[in-house]
Design goal:
This protein is mainly α and about 250 residues long. Helices cover about 65% and strands about 5% of the residues. The protein is built from nine helices and three strands, in the order H-E-H-H-E-E-H-H-H-H-H-H. It has a three-stranded antiparallel β-sheet with strand order 1-3-2. The longest helix is centred in the middle third of the chain and has 25 residues. The radius of gyration is 20 Å and the shape is globular.
Length: about 250
């Protein structure tokens, strides 16, 4: 009974967090809009206590901001904010790759990340209609999580996790639109080649090369962002993360 009573509040908090994050990322709550605890609790069918916990978590993730007079509002990001976040992810992941190469990686860790890259080889195809994009998204997230762990720095791992919690800085920011856009699909082919090159550089203890490759890898997201905003703005609504971007 005790375990059940402890699990209930956690489930409510997870429900509130998932529901609130979904509303924000889908643009159903406008950037800058003040969040009403009463209205949101009713909308998500949770009590205000787990909702407050969810709001605090989203503040830590950078999706909402605390208002000086009290309460929260959805955070608004400029295009430059989005670019800076993507670049910062590249810097952090580049540092992780360089340190992993310089410090050396345990054989089991190398085997694990190599296995993910090999599995991705079977998922990434030249024919977008034959690709399992959900599978790619899961494996890509796993690759980047393992990359952050390779150097053995908990401080660096936490900073990468914090940065990638911003949806537009996530390695999967544009994956959910790949199927319909040839430009995005081609970027996946490049990304997979870069996955292999990063792991190769780490294995060969080539720190500078590993860092440069990881930073270039992150810039694929910048290229996709520029493509959406400048060449095909009608796609903006399909990239959930861009609902937070003003202008």
């Amino acid at each position: 009974m005790a375990q059940a009573s402890e699990a209930a509040p956690k489930q409510q908090t997870l429900k509130a967090l998932s529901g609130l994050r979904d509303l924000v990322l889908k643009g159903e709550i406008e950037p800058g809009e003040r969040l009403s605890e009463v209205a949101l609790a009713a909308r998500l069918n949770v009590s205000r206590t787990p909702l407050r916990a969810a709001l605090q978590k989203l503040e830590q993730e950078g999706l909402v901001t605390l208002i000086p007079s009290g309460g929260y509002s959805v955070r608004s990001f400029t295009r430059q904010d989005v670019i800076d976040a993507i670049e910062l992810r590249g810097v952090l992941e580049g540092m992780a790759a360089r340190l992993a190469a310089e410090r050396g990686v345990a054989p089991l860790q190398l085997k694990t990340i190599m296995s993910v890259v090999e599995t991705l080889d079977g998922v990434v195809t030249t024919d977008p209609k034959a690709m399992d994009f959900a599978r790619y998204e899961a494996l890509n997230a796993e690759f980047h999580g393992l990359l952050a762990d390779l150097c053995g720095s908990e401080v660096l791992r936490r900073e990468i996790e914090r940065m990638t919690s911003l949806p537009f800085a996530s390695p999967n920011a544009f994956v959910n639109t790949e199927m319909d856009v040839p430009t995005f699909h081609r970027s996946l082919l490049v990304a997979q080649a870069q996955h292999k090159a990063i792991v190769s550089a780490i294995t060969l203890r080539e720190g500078a090369r590993a860092e440069a490759l990881a930073r270039e890898h992150a810039r694929l997201a910048r290229q996709n962002l520029d493509f959406v905003l400048e060449e095909q703005p009608d796609l903006r609504g399909k990239v959930l993360a861009l609902a937070l971007m003003s202008g």
